[in-house]
Input
Amino acid sequence: MSLQTDRSSLAGPDALGVRTRLFGSCAVLTVRGEIDYGTVPVLDEVVEALPCGLKSVVLEMTGVTFMDAAGLHFLRRLDAYGQRRGIPVRALNLRRQPQRVMELARKWPGTPRLGTVPGRAAPTGVPTVQEPQ
Output
């Protein structure tokens, strides 16, 4: 499989950008900017465009500076995507603010249980550090 795409929102200086790349059968979504109500549709489009036959999905979040409840809802949909396909989905390298949102939200039922431990290893050969822009 071969795929590399770049998508972004038009929401101003803190717009969301997503780079999608395949490493073998693993899709890596490298995200930068803010995940909120205005930018989540970009993430939904990216997930909808993923090819069939993937063995895992990694959401690389080093570049995410802010995430609100809309981001939690997206993570729930991404988790459901992985469950429907029987593949692992991991969110890696959360900064403090998105990590804190996840910590607070875990108190409520239905919060996604994605692998969100900062620094958790991705599949072999999959880069997990944001690329220079």
Q: What stands out?
A: The two ends are 25 Å apart (CA to CA). Residues 69-85 form the longest helix (17 residues).
